């Protein structure tokens, strides 16, 4: 097992090129690293990351990480250009699907209720997944750590999960590529009504996170792991950010028993998207789905041991494989929660 370092920064945290100051007892500090050269740039108290802050410049390569409307922009210019088509296509699809709302209560009710009733079936799935995570996984991990959890919400979208976790007293950081105000990180401003302090938000890619190593207790891929272009790179980066004893959690990514079933799903979806939107939704070379073989390969390469958690999504969902078989259709996707501990070497 690779060493993922110590937990939060200790000793004498450095402000961005300022004089050192003593840490405050009980305050969590987050070490940031350069978005270009990955060198350590500064250490900032967790809650200060969500407040207005001056830009941070790397002393080595002079790359700058700044805020825009409270969101840290941690995506280098070349990577912004790389993701431009994907972000444009993704936003088009999400708007057409009726994501987001002008009503702040829409966001505050997630994942338990879709007030627009446009994607209620999906939020029914999300709510049951989250309820399982909240009741069956998070309490045990928090008990082991004996303190609020430092959590990376990777692929956070409108950051509803970060909101829920913050309400439980944990300390999430929401990470996503999308920053718009209806379906991206910008929508998180609505949670300020219900939280004493908003959690930090970072625009960053999952394969190059702007955080120092060994700082977090849990990295959650919330319906996002399948967007990865390289599962090995994405998983390695999440593991790097975890302290020993931390947990990887993958939720609501489509799973198939065989590779060919996933490939059939992709062909069907691209054909549907081409007809509806005029493009095949392939602006990113995402891996798109999980299989048992893919999970086993990741387990072996990263010295992990996956635990699969089965969530009850209702009788209709449970009967989908049987119905598909009777109709001689392809195998439908299944959702499971996969967790793995990063142990002390």
Outline the biggest β-sheet: 10 strands, mixed
CATH topology: Rossmann fold
Q: Quaternary status of these chains? A: single chain
Q: Provide the gyration radius in Å.
A: 20 Å
CATH architect. name: 3-Layer(aba) Sandwich
Provide the CATH superfamily. Answer: Vaccinia Virus protein VP39
Number of domains: 1
Helical stretch tally = 9
Question: Which spans have pLDDT < 50 for at least 5 consecutive residues?
Answer: 1-25
Shape: globular
**CATH class placement:** Alpha Beta
Overview features:
two-stranded antiparallel sheet, 10-stranded mixed β-sheet, Rossmann fold, 345 residues, alpha/beta
Can you put this structure into words, describing what you see?
- This protein has 345 residues and is α/β, with parallel strands linked by helices.
- It has one domain: Vaccinia Virus protein VP39 (Rossmann fold, 3-Layer(aba) Sandwich).
- It is 32% helix and 19% strand.
- It is built from nine helices and 14 strands.
- The strands form three sheets. It has a ten-stranded mixed beta sheet with strand order 3-4-5-8-7-6-9-10-14-13, sandwiched between helices. Strands 1-2 form a two-stranded antiparallel sheet.
- Strand 1 (29-33) and strand 2 form a beta hairpin.
- The model is unreliable at 1-25 (pLDDT under 50).
């Amino acid at each position: 097992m690779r060493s993922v370092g110590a937990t939060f920064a200790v000793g004498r945290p450095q402000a961005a090129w300022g004089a050192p100051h003593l840490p405050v007892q009980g305050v969590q500090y987050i070490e940031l690293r350069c978005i270009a050269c990955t060198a350590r740039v500064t250490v900032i108290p967790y809650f200060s990351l969500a407040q207005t802050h001056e830009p941070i410049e790397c002393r080595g390569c002079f790359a700058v990480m700044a805020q825009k409307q409270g969101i840290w922009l941690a995506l280098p210019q070349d990577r912004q250009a790389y993701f431009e088509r994907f972000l444009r296509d993704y936003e088009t699809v999400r708007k057409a699907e009726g994501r987001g709302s002008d009503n702040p209560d829409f966001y505050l009710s997630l994942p338990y209720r879709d007030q627009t009733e446009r994607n209620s079936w999906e939020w029914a799935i999300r709510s049951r997944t989250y309820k399982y995570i909240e009741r069956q996984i998070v309490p045990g991990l928090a008990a082991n750590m004996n303190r609020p959890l430092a959590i990376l919400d990777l692929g956070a979208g409108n950051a509803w999960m970060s909101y829920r976790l913050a309400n439980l007293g944990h300390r999430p950081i929401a990470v996503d590529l999308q920053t718009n105000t209806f379906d991206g990180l910008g929508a998180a401003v609505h949670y300020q009504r219900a939280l004493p302090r908003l959690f930090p938000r970072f625009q960053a890619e999952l394969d190059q996170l702007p955080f120092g190593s060994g700082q977090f207790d849990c990295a959650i891929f919330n319906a996002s792991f399948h967007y990865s272009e390289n599962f090995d790179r994405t998983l390695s980066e999440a593991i790097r950010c975890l302290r020993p004893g931390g947990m990887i959690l993958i939720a609501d990514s489509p799973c198939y028993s065989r590779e060919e079933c996933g490939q059939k799903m992709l062909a069907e979806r691209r054909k549907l998207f081409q007809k509806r939107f005029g493009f095949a939704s392939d602006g990113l070379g995402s891996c798109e789905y999980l299989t048992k073989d893919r999970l086993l390969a990741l387990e072996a390469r990263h010295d992990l041991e996956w635990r699969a958690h089965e969530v009850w999504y209702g009788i209709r969902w449970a009967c989908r494989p049987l119905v598909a078989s009777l109709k001689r259709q392809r195998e439908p996707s299944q959702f499971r929660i996969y967790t793995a501990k990063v142990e002390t070497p």
